[in-house]
Amino acid sequence: MGLGHFGGKEVIPLKEGNKRGNVNSIRAVLLAQPYKEARGKALDAFNIKYITNVLNKNSGNVTNAAKASEIERQYLQRMLKRYNIKSKDIF
Description:
Layout: E1 4-6, E2 9-11, H1 20-31, H2 35-57, H3 62-69, H4 73-82
Antiparallel strand pairs: 1-2
């Protein structure tokens, strides 16, 4: 599994399920990079997956998604902008 692009950022895609091959592929890609770069890509992939999941569970409603995540709505909106995620396109 290689790197993907989301919102103009190069990230490690996170797949559903726990197939060992997926974990090993992600681990191999991350471990081949410098720590700071690997950490950033892993965090970006987590953030994208988390945001899209919580928005989906809240029918694209940013205010409700922020409450469910226990973060400020404005912070969630900044993350949406950073990763170029459109809440209306989620669910």
